[in-house]
Amino acid sequence: MIDKSMLQTRKLSILIVDDDSAQLMLIRMLVEQQGYEVITACNGVEALKLFRENPDIRLVVTDLDMPFMDGFELIRRVRQEQTKYTYIIVLTSHEAQHSVVAALNDGADDFLTKPAFNEELQLRIKSGIRLLRLESQDELILAMARLSEYRSEETGYHLEKVQRYAALLGHDLLENCKKFHLTPSFVEEIAQVTPLHDIGKVAIPDNILHKPGKLTSEEFEIMKEHSVIGGRMLLDIFAKTGSHYLKTASDIAMYHHEKFNGKGYPEGLKGDAIPLGARIMALADIYDAMTSERCYKEAFSHEKVKSIITQERGEHLDPDVVDSFLRQESVWLTIKERYQRINVLPEKS
């Protein structure tokens, strides 16, 4: 019988990966009985291809010992390429405890001992879906951010991409730049609120926001007001709710157009005086804007944008943040290309 409390997640797809056809058929049958859409693969290569082609896949159940690409490599690739968090359950045997530990270290969330039993499988899947539901706050933030995105007619998953890029920068700086004294929770907070960076554009007149050509100096001064409007709006909500992530969101919205050399706006802050979240957002925003096609320009290549970012090290951009980008540029390129493949957002009229 289908658990009715799970009906709201019916669009969620579950990818099952196993080179044992009997085991694959059994798990597929058990999962389909719960009312989920099931996609199957017999090895990691096939699974990764299906994962790339099906953005609705949010939960993966995979064996570890498979030909062509094993489950360990599949886990690492899914973690690298996911655009939303994907819950991963690994299938293992009783005597393979060391494999479970290795899989969890690679990014798996849970494990299931073979042969799979229906009740245990249900519990594992429900645990995964409970975690995925925690994304509701992120979805609310994205919904708020759409107000500005739709008005400015930006397409191509701009908000999701800058969120991913900011997360990459934050996690890398956490590991490699101890002077910032970052914590994992603050890194997640920065990534969570980046979609709100341009929320102030809701107050910019259409004739300026949608102008295809270069803005006049007077128009540009009006456009620049979006950072202050957005920052103050979020700060006001923070004062009323006490939700700390909104303070971080306010800093990013207010200061992501500041420059490391002090020549940005709205306050001309310089260097470390600019909140770190805003410095991270600046690079993420620049990279996506330059590598994306707009009505008034073609998309720049990754190499061209990399050259521009490198030239702006210590000028527009924080040197440590630029170095973080360079350490992981191949991952950025993978994310950019993945979003190009799944860019199925409807055109805005």
Can you offer a commentary on this structure?
This protein is α/β, with parallel strands linked by helices and 349 residues long. It has two domains: 4-133, Rossmann fold, CATH 3.40.50; 136-341, Hypothetical protein af1432, CATH 1.10.3210.10. 56% of the residues lie in helices and 8% in strands. It contains 15 helices and five strands. The chain has helices spanning 21-32, 44-53, 71-81, 97-106, 118-133, 136-152, 158-176, 184-193, 206-209, 217-241, 244-255, 276-291, 302-311, 319-327, 329-341; strands spanning 13-17, 37-41, 57-63, 87-92, 110-113. The protein has a five-stranded parallel beta sheet, sandwiched between helices. Helix 4 (97-106) links the parallel strand 4 and strand 5 (110-113). The protein starts with 12 loop residues before the first strand and ends in an 8-residue tail after the last helix. The model is unreliable at 1-10 and 344-349 (pLDDT under 50). Residues 133-341 form the HD-GYP domain. Residues 13-129 form the Response regulatory domain.
Topology summary:
Layout: E1 13-17, H1 21-32, E2 37-41, H2 44-53, E3 57-63, H3 71-81, E4 87-92, H4 97-106, E5 110-113, H5 118-133, H6 136-152, H7 158-176, H8 184-193, H9 206-209, H10 217-241, H11 244-255, H12 276-291, H13 302-311, H14 319-327, H15 329-341
Helix pairs in contact: 2-3, 7-8, 7-12, 7-14, 7-15, 8-11, 10-11, 11-12, 12-13
GO biological process, one term: phosphorelay signal transduction system
Pfam families: HD_5, Response_reg
Protein name: CheY-like receiver and HD-GYP domain-containing response regulator
